[in-house]
């Protein structure tokens, strides 16, 4: 076992070294803060939509998505796969309703998008809630990544968590968005391959698909065993996260036109839906092979039985899942800090060399800050969905901004964001009273507040709505 762990550890180190080389190569696309955060520069080639689809997927399939889904499947069966599959449904809706509009608007921050309709004060409020949500996800990603990788690599959990965070912060800090694009495409391929390799191994070890079905309770094959309230809550939080996540908007901004933005979103959907149910089936294989273990050990127990080569690929996939999510969070948060705080306060522009230094330093700093909290984090799945719920509140305003920009008021938008932040977190900390998930609270607050502000409004929220700007640009 000791030799196997050394082999796996060496394999993961080689994988991370390759990522570092990619990051260094990406330096040529990070000449200033603008190219650093957008991933584009003069003469750079457009990234194919299929690869941007992998990029979009990468932010949502950290170790919580794979290990956490297998854990839930150990308890509830194949219906646990919905917790990731709903993200695919969200991207499918996003592709037809928002992807092209985001690209044609020409902004690469969620705060700038909402500010077009609701004014500069909303820009700051949006930036704050988005940074808060992204940092929550970072805490859960570090915690789950460290907890899973530590026993597989034979190192201390705290050490695994710290190394995970430091390395991700450094390689994103060096290469910027272009580095994230290239490395997260690699991550996406490794993660996707790793989960299906684990599934193949699990089914083979059980005996066959028929043997798996025969040895698991019939209700575990029901797509609704986890319960409709839970599935709908996942859908609300997950779809909201895809509609209004900083990193998604940044990724969409890297494609050449609205058609490719839509295509990339469809690809993300096609990747995420099978990924979710594959991870759930891994958990069901573990239920048959390792009855009576703690559910969180479902995936790691399966890996422990693999040969060295297979285990290396799957563990590299888990590492890739954590790194992919962390790098997306870091670049997204740093971009918001640059555009909504540093540049307005200092009066500098993105071509200033000090702006590039700031955004690089910010990328490393926001990668390091969640590390302390991650060492204390408990239920990472619930914490992750709290962050998704917070973004669902912003998604309501995004839809209003694009499809009904004259509904509500600027003051109503600001109040919506503030109350959503306080109300959703408060509901989560109270334990979701009456069985009502905090995602529903995040969805309801902006709807109610904007409706009330519209009824008692004094003036329109903007002189020229976003939709009118886009229509005139299309003409």
UniProtKB/TrEMBL annotation:
Cellular component (GO) terms are:
plasma membrane
Main location per UniProt?
membrane
Q: Molecular function (GO) terms listed? A: symporter activity
Q: Where in the cell is it found?
A: Membrane
The record ties this protein, via InterPro entries, to:
Na/Glc_symporter_sf (IPR038377), Na/solute_symporter (IPR001734), Sodium:Solute_Symporter (IPR050277)
Domain of life of the native organism: Bacteria
Recorded topology in the membrane = Multi-pass membrane protein
Q: Any idea which UniProt keywords this protein has?
A: Membrane, Symport, Transmembrane, Transmembrane helix, Transport
Segments passing through the bilayer? 6-27, 48-74, 80-99, 124-145, 157-174, 181-203, 231-249, 270-293, 313-337, 357-377, 383-404, 411-430, 436-456
- Report the family membership: Belongs to the sodium:solute symporter (SSF) (TC 2.A.21) family.
Q: What is this protein called?
A: Sodium:solute symporter family protein
- Which source organism does the UniProt entry give? Pseudoxanthomonas composti
């Amino acid at each position: 076992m000791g030799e196997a762990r050394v082999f796996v550890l060496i394999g993961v180190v080689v994988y991370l070294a390759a990522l570092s080389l990619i990051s260094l190569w990406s330096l040529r696309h990070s000449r200033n803060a603008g190219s650093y955060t957008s991933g584009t520069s003069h003469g750079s080639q457009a990234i194919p939509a299929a690869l941007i689809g992998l990029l979009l997927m990468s932010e949502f399939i950290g170790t919580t998505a794979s290990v956490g889904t297998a854990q839930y499947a150990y308890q509830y069966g194949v219906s646990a796969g919905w917790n990731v599959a709903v993200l695919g449904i969200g991207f499918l809706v996003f592709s037809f309703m928002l992807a092209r509009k985001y690209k044609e608007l020409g902004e690469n921050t969620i705060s700038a998008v909402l500010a077009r309709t609701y004014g500069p004060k909303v820009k700051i409020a949006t930036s704050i809630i988005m940074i808060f949500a992204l940092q929550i996800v970072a805490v859960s990603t570090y915690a789950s990544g460290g907890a899973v990788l530590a026993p597989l690599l034979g190192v201390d959990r705290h050490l695994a968590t710290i190394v995970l965070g430091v390395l991700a912060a450094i390689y994103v800090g060096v290469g910027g968005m272009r580095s994230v694009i290239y490395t997260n495409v690699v991550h996406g391929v490794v993660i996707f391959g790793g989960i299906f390799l684990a599934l193949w191994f699990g089914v083979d070890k059980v005996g066959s698909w028929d043997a798996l079905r025969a040895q698991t309770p019939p209700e575990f094959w029901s797509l609704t065993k986890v319960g409709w309230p839970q599935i709908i809550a996942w859908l609300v939080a997950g779809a909201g996260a895809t509609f209004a996540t900083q990193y998604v908007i940044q990724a969409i901004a890297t494609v050449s036109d609205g058609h490719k933005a839509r295509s990339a979103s469809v690809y993300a959907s096609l990747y995420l839906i099978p990924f979710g149910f594959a991870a759930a089936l891994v958990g069901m294989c573990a239920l048959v092979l390792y009855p009576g273990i703690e559910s969180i050990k479902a995936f790691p127990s399966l890996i422990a039985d693999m040969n060295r080569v297979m285990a290396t690929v799957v563990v590299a996939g888990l590492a890739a899942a954590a790194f992919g999510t962390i790098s997306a969070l870091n670049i997204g948060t740093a971009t918001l800090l640059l555009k909504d705080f540093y540049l307005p306060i200092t009066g500098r522009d993105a071509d200033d060399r000090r702006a590039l230094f700031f955004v690089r330093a910010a990328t490393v700093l926001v990668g390091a800050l969640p590390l302390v909290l991650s060492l204390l984090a408990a239920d990472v799945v619930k914490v992750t969905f709290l962050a998704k719920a917070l973004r669902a509140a912003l998604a309501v305003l995004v839809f209003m901004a694009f499809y009904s920009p004259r509904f509500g008021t600027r003051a109503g938008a600001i109040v919506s964001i503030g109350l959503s932040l306080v109300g959703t977190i408060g509901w989560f900390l109270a334990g979701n009273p009456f069985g009502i998930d905090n995602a529903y609270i995040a969805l309801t607050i902006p709807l109610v507040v904007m409706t009330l502000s519209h009824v008692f409004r004094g003036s329109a929220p903007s002189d020229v709505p976003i939709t009118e700007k886009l229509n005139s640009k299309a003409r």
